[in-house]
Write a structure and sequence with these properties.
The protein is α+β, with helices and mostly antiparallel strands. It contains three helices and ten strands, in the order αβββαβββββββα. The longest helix has 17 residues.
Length: 174
């Protein structure tokens, strides 16, 4: 499975700033289980932290519609995400989206949050490919974000290596 086979058809129809690929497993036509087997998650993470620099942080995310406030290491970022298109494959959700920074005052007050999430995140950056190994409560999942720029194809090549490792270690019962 090559990720570009999922990404390119979307990009032929739409333009976007970023591409998000979430690893997991499709359970029905409308449900996708992003929680992956801990052994597979750890295997891929350990392989990558041997080769690349990484950071670890606790991130608190406040969500309200398509606006997000990220708080980590005493730093706040407020962003707006507009999903352009997406596709769900057997093992991946690929989403095209535009993201822009917004002023903190544009973010709703505490009473209007849709969701508050606390994650432990290990970030690995490979050129314009960002990998996030996320622990959310008892769930572990992997999210890849590709900047849609001149380095996109190189990022997809790097991601394909990780995808191959992921798919070759999947268990039927997770």
């Amino acid at each position: 499975m090559e990720i570009n086979n999922l990404v390119n058809p979307l990009l032929e129809k739409h333009k976007s700033d970023k591409i998000s690929i979430t690893f997991g497993r499709k359970s029905t036509d409308f449900l996708f289980e992003k929680n992956i087997d801990e052994e597979v998650w750890t295997l891929i993470l350990n392989d990558l932290i041997q080769k690349y620099n990484f950071t670890q942080e606790k991130v608190k995310i406040y969500k309200s519609d398509n606006k997000y406030m990220y708080i980590s290491n005493n730093k706040k970022e407020t962003k707006k995400q507009i999903t352009i298109d997406y596709t769900i494959d057997e093992n991946f959700i690929v989403k095209l989206y535009n993201e822009s920074e917004i002023q903190e005052i544009e973010f709703p007050c505490k009473k209007n949050y849709d969701k508050i999430i606390v994650n432990d995140v290990t970030n690995i950056k490979i050129n314009s490919l960002s990998l996030q190994f996320i622990e959310e409560n008892e769930f572990k999942y992997i999210n890849a974000i590709i900047e849609n720029n001149a380095y996109r194809e190189d990022s997809i090549k790097n991601l394909n290596i990780i995808v191959e490792l992921f798919l070759s270690n999947l268990k039927d019962d997770y």
